[in-house]
């Protein structure tokens, strides 16, 4: 099954961005408006993801988010993988924040 994919620079600023990385990755650096649901919790927390708008899914490099997007599409959401993940996001100069008080980085 192919999953729709866009590059980080093509994600609209107003997009619903779902970050499926683990807690330590999230804390190191994430998009300011992203919603964090680790991949292992996604099935249990899927109702937190809106169905009325496209969902852009991101992880570190794009593998976990592709799996998450495929599953979301399978169960009725409109999900798009962010190719290259947060590494591409950072490289594209998109905004990032961290929970640690340190400069954000992609772990």
UniProtKB/TrEMBL annotation:
<protein>
    <submittedName>
        <fullName>Sulfurtransferase</fullName>
    </submittedName>
</protein>
<dbReference type="InterPro" id="IPR001763">
    <property type="entry name" value="Rhodanese-like_dom"/>
</dbReference>
<dbReference type="InterPro" id="IPR036873">
    <property type="entry name" value="Rhodanese-like_dom_sf"/>
</dbReference>
<dbReference type="Pfam" id="PF00581">
    <property type="entry name" value="Rhodanese"/>
</dbReference>
<dbReference type="InterPro" id="IPR050229">
    <property type="entry name" value="GlpE_sulfurtransferase"/>
</dbReference>
<feature type="domain" description="Rhodanese">
    <location>
        <begin position="11"/>
        <end position="98"/>
    </location>
</feature>
